[in-house]
Structure formats: structure tokens, C-alpha cells
Amino acid sequence: MDAGTEGAGCSFCGRSAGEAGEAGEVFAGPGMNICRECAGAAEAIVREYTDGAVQVRLPRWDGMGEDEMLAQIPRIAAVADQVEADLRVWVRELRRRGVTWARIGGVLGITRQSAWERFSGGERFTGEE
């Protein structure tokens, strides 16, 4: 994450870096920003619930209008793109280390052929793995 993003506001509380006072740094992530105060609050919430099962949930849309929901889509898409890019880097490193497509597919719950099609980037599939 990039610290101190000029002019960026916190995606959670809406304060800009200047408005956040002593906790004035705003950290930029994929599709959203967070100030120190909100990051601290998030950390406290995570600590409170780490004893039980942690389940990531999308924001509840029951009270949201279509425009509010549409405004969230670019953020969600940016996070999905970043996750996919990170996954490709991990798979590329596993392949560099000689891990088979069968093992990679197995941990993803897909076939070796599906793993190869998704991640190979043109690597020749021999079907012998």
C-alpha cells in the first residue's frame, strides 16, 4: 500500500489526509483508501473476532440503492483484478519450482487441464503431468 496518497480520502470515513489530523496518513490499496484511525478500528474488530471462524462478506446491500451498489462495483473489480494477478504470480513461481499442473489444479479444485488453460500463458501442455 502507498502511504500518504495526495488528496485521497479514506474510503471508510470519508476524511481526506488533511482532515484526519494527527492520524493524517491515508493508505491507498486496490480500489480504496484507509486512514490510520479506520485501520486501527478494523484491526480491533479483527482481533475481537479471531477466536471464531472469520468469514469475509461483501457489504450488505439491503439498504443500498442501485447507484450506491454501482459505485461499489469498480472497487470490487479492482480487488478481484489484484487477487487474480497475485494468484498468477504464485502459480508462475510454483511452475518455476517444478510443481505440476495436477497439484496446482488440485488445490484450486479444478483439473490440471483447467489450471493450465487459466495460468499457462502459452506454455505447452503435454498431458503427461
From TrEMBL:
Domain of life where this protein originates: Bacteria
Pfam family, one: zf-C4_ClpX
Gene Ontology MF term list: protein dimerization activity; unfolded protein binding; zinc ion binding
InterPro entries in the record: Znf_CLPX-like, Znf_CppX_C4, Znf_CppX_C4_sf
Single GO biological process annotation from the record: protein folding
Higher taxonomy: Bacteria, Bacillati, Actinomycetota, Actinomycetes, Streptosporangiales
Name assigned to this protein: ClpX-type ZB domain-containing protein
Amino acids binding Zn(2+): C10, C13, C35, C38
Keyword terms: Chaperone, Metal-binding, Zinc
Family listed: Belongs to the ClpX chaperone family.
Gene3D superfamilies with a match to the protein in the record: ClpX chaperone, C4-type zinc finger domain
Domain ClpX-type ZB residue range list: 1-54
